[in-house]
Automatic annotation (TrEMBL):
This is Nucleotide sugar dehydrogenase. Transmembrane segments: none annotated. It comes from Muricoccus vinaceus. InterPro entries: 6-PGluconate_DH-like_C_sf, NAD(P)-bd_dom_sf, UDP-Glc/GDP-Man, UDP-Glc/GDP-Man_DH_C, UDP-Glc/GDP-Man_DH_C_sf, UDP-Glc/GDP-Man_DH_dimer, UDP-Glc/GDP-Man_DH_N, UDP_ManNAc/GlcNAc_DH. Keywords: NAD, Oxidoreductase. Residues 341-442 form the UDP-glucose/GDP-mannose dehydrogenase C-terminal domain. The lineage of its organism: Bacteria, Pseudomonadati, Pseudomonadota, Alphaproteobacteria, Acetobacterales.
Length: 451
């Protein structure tokens, strides 16, 4: 008799949650209001769900509560509409989690100093949520991570809370696929992977995400979704590593690597063009190879391509500095004491994000070699001191990009060409341009060296 009652209770928890999701009455809690979490919270709110955002950063919470966007590229008017006329709220602390029907975790998963996975934000989030977990809730992890994370970290928390996974609580993994700066790279437009710890969890996951996602791609297990997310980013990292090696070979042969790529790209099958650069940055592409390689080592299997790509891409900032040193040397100038202006400190054009940015590493290497370095980036007006760059010295500030400034430099290095940068002015006024992105190719005045 007890088994019949238990089954009925479990079915009731799932059916009530599914009904609330279908009616868009379920309260959605989004933990982490950054590049992944805030657009997801807005998407839920715009479709009529009540949404409660959580973040440890009080400034982000205050901005959302005031109807402002704390994230570059997300329209403040959207936040204002959902805050005043929609169901969006935000808070610091996890106390409101008890009132949420679904809790979606969108927190950072960086790498540690020895290239090991750093899941401290996920662990801290789960620890904060644990006292507020209750029957009838779903927990979905969206952070990029190695296969096995959801099972290893989320399921034990639910068990300690006295909840039975797939019966009265539902564990989901559905990785974010936001592409900052790309209006097509949003949850509303990109197919979304979704997996559950059980068939019942998958059913809840589908009901949770079907309203907000461009389309759903259900997979058979949590680990499949976790590995697929790693692989899609490692795919890019490996191919970028390959083209970065090709760049070095082309330079040694005095060939234009971009002309080589353009020529190869005329093949209509079996080829996908990737572009070289000064290294990798951001929250996924430079990180995920190390998550996958770490898991492979734990399993005792090789991950040679993955690890090699990581090493190649990590070496590109130093290679860019070498190209600059050689270009200065050809003009009879030493790198030590040279005045060098870096264009772009963010990791990619169109965003202010400096996480893992190769520009920061280039800046550090140049300072270590005695160069006098400054930077211009209209989206990064100030860069606070870090352990990697200038220690405890005052914050760096972006300098104006004008003819006098450019002409006063021994070299200008194009690292991240932000929208609106006057590259024609740079070409006219600079004594030497070292171009790490191939954006200054073609005929024109000035000395341009690719790096």
């Amino acid at each position: 008799m007890d088994g019949v009652v238990g089954l009925s209770t479990a079915q009731g928890s799932r059916e009530r949650l599914l009904a609330r999701l279908e009616a868009r009455q379920a309260r959605i809690g989004v933990i982490g209001l950054g590049y992944a979490g805030l657009p997801l919270a807005l998407r839920f709110a715009e479709l009529g769900f009540p949404v409660l955002g959580f973040d440890t950063d009080g400034a982000k919470v205050a901005a959302v509560e005031a109807g402002r966007s704390p994230v570059h590229g997300i329209d403040g008017a959207r936040v204002a509409r959902m805050r005043t006329g929609g169901g969006l709220r935000a808070q610091v602390g996890a106390a409101g989690a008890a009132g949420c029907d679904a809790l979606v975790i969108c927190v950072p998963t960086p790498i540690g100093p020895h290239k090991e996975p750093d899941l401290s934000a996920v662990r801290a989030t789960l620890a904060a949520l644990e006292p507020f977990l209750r029957p009838g809730q779903a927990i979905s992890l969206e952070s990029t991570t190695y296969p096995g994370t959801t099972e290893e970290l989320v399921l034990p928390v639910l068990a300690r809370a006295g909840l039975r996974v797939g019966e009265d609580a539902f564990a989901i993994y559905s990785p974010e696929r936001e592409d900052p700066g790309n209006p097509e790279g949003t949850v509303a437009r990109v197919p979304k992977l979704v997996a559950g710890a059980t068939a019942a969890c998958l059913a809840v996951g589908r009901a949770l995400y079907e309203p907000v996602a461009g389309s759903l791609v259900p997979v058979s297990s949590l680990a499949v979704a976790e590995l697929a997310k790693c692989y899609e980013n490692v795919f890019r990292a490996v191919n970028i590593g390959l083209v970065n090696e090709l760049k070095r070979i082309a330079h040694a042969m005095d060939l234009d690597v971009h002309e080589v790529i353009d020529a190869a790209a005329t093949k209509p099958f079996g080829f996908m063009p990737f572009r070289p650069g000064p290294g990798l940055g951001g929250h996924c592409i430079p990180v995920d190879p190390y998550y996958l390689a770490w898991k492979a080592r734990e399993l005792g299997v090789p991950s040679d391509f993955v690890e090699l790509a990581g090493r190649v891409n990590d070496a590109m900032p130093a290679y860019a500095v070498e190209r600059l040193r050689d270009a200065l040397d050809a003009r009879g100038l030493p790198l030590r004491g040279a005045r060098v202006l870096l264009l772009g400190l963010a990791y990619k054009p169109g965003v202010p994000d400096t996480r893992e940015s190769p520009a920061v590493e280039i800046f550090r290497l140049l300072e270590a070699r005695g160069a006098m370095v400054s930077y211009h980036d209209p989206l990064v007006p100030r860069f606070p001191p870090t352990r990697r760059l200038r220690g405890a010295s005052p914050a760096l500030e972006s300098v104006a990009l004008d003819e006098a400034r450019i002409a006063s430099q021994d070299a200008v290095m194009v690292v991240t060409p932000q929208p609106g940068m006057d590259l024609a002015l740079v070409r006219r006024a600079a004594a030497l341009v070292v171009d790490t992105r191939g954006v200054m190719r073609g005929d024109g005045p000035g000395v341009v060296v690719t790096a």
